[in-house]
Queue: 2 jobs
Job 1
Amino acid sequence: MNTDIMSRPTVLDRIGMALAGVRDWLDDRGKGAWVAAIILGFVACWPAGLAILGYTIWSKRMFSCRHRHHRHPDRFARFGERFGSAPFPPTGNAAFDAYREETLKRLEDEHREFVDFLQKLREAKDKAEFDQFMQGRNSAPPAEPQQ
């Protein structure tokens, strides 16, 4: 059997890749682009608009801002690979670039400290709840065996 035929994408694969590209393009532009796509879909052919509306509701793209950034969590890392080690290209102003790098590093450190604080807070809350449970369990009278 010819392996070239088996490795070629089918028509459905190509359609799926095209639709994924359109979805990614709309995600990059935000909710306004999705609303425009829904309106254009209704103007062109109402079932298409209804399908797009159903998809945006089903995928929670209209009610959440996570999808836009969730899709490429490492996009700034890839952006930085193109322009050097910094996640943003240099502006040509050395003082501003140094300030920006220092500020971003400080914000990353503060974020890390805040996440650590939240983790310790959760652990303390869990410990307090567990201690309360154990105290209630130890102070409860033992159940009498039934005869």
Job 2
Amino acid sequence: MRTFANLDELAAAVGEHLGHGSWHEVTQAEVDLFADATGDHQWIHVDRERAAAGPFGAPVAHGYLTLSLIPLLVRDIYTVRGLTMGVNYGLNRVRFPSPVTVGSRIRAGAELVGVTDVARGKHAVVKVVVDIEHHPKPACVAETVVLLVP
């Protein structure tokens, strides 16, 4: 865990790779819950038998599920002290180069791309690469924007 004492210290780290988080196994239960929450019950995600015979040999997580796991995956990579809150502000770019099959383990790496002043604090832009264990291509590459309020 990389700890920044304040926003100025964070800003000084622009351009640096902040590290990698812990591995997380993607389960069928998570996929099913996400399907229920979003209404996306496509067979490739929730029908285990059909998905096993499909193009990936197993059910795959929704790309947006992988994206939604980013806060979990980066929480042990870095922290900034002295904040009243940090709020997801949005995304600049997102890609899903490889599917995540159920039972796979994923983890995130984070690179601090930029820190800019805004009215309530600072926007931190972090490039997050979600890797799949034993797979050459990442599951997700996303440039996240977080509002950090001192």
